[in-house]
Every structure is written in C-alpha cells, then in structure tokens.
C-alpha cells in the first residue's frame, strides 16, 4: 500500500477528528467550502 500523497493546487488543509453523526460519521469544515471537491485521507493512528 502506498503511504505518500502529493496534490497540486490546494487551497489549504485541515486536521479533524471524525465524529458520530446518527448512523454515519462526519468531519466538520468551514462553510466557505460548501460545494467544493474534497479528499478525505484516513491516517493510521
């Protein structure tokens, strides 16, 4: 499995904890990013 990721042209990045949301989960980000394409990268803890 690959453990390296490079992405060009990003606006920024966030470190967030995933929290329970009903029967699913979520990671909160600022509302200015509504409608933007995002990538979720899951790290080994």
Describe what you observe in this structure:
By secondary structure, this protein is mainly β. The chain has one domain (1-45). Helices cover 0% and strands 13% of the residues. The protein contains no helices and two strands. The chain has strands at residues 19-21, 24-26. Strands 1-2 form a two-stranded antiparallel ribbon. It starts with 18 loop residues before the first strand and ends in a 19-residue tail after the last strand.
* Number of individual domains: 1
Strand order of the largest sheet: 1-2
The rough form would be described as flat
| Mean pLDDT over all positions | 90
Low-confidence parts: none
Would you list the SSEs in sequence order as H and E? EE
- Radius of gyration equals 13 Å
Q: What's a concise summary of this model?
A:
By secondary structure, this protein is an all-beta fold.
Describe the structure using short key phrases.
about 45 residues; mainly beta; 2 strands; about 15% strand; flat
Explain the layout of strands and helices.
Blueprint: E1 19-21, E2 24-26
Antiparallel strand pairs: 1-2
């Amino acid at each position: 499995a690959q453990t390296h990721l490079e992405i060009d042209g990003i606006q920024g990045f966030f470190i967030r904890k995933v929290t329970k949301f009903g029967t699913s989960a979520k990671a909160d980000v600022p509302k200015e990013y509504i409608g933007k394409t995002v990538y979720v990268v899951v790290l080994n803890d």
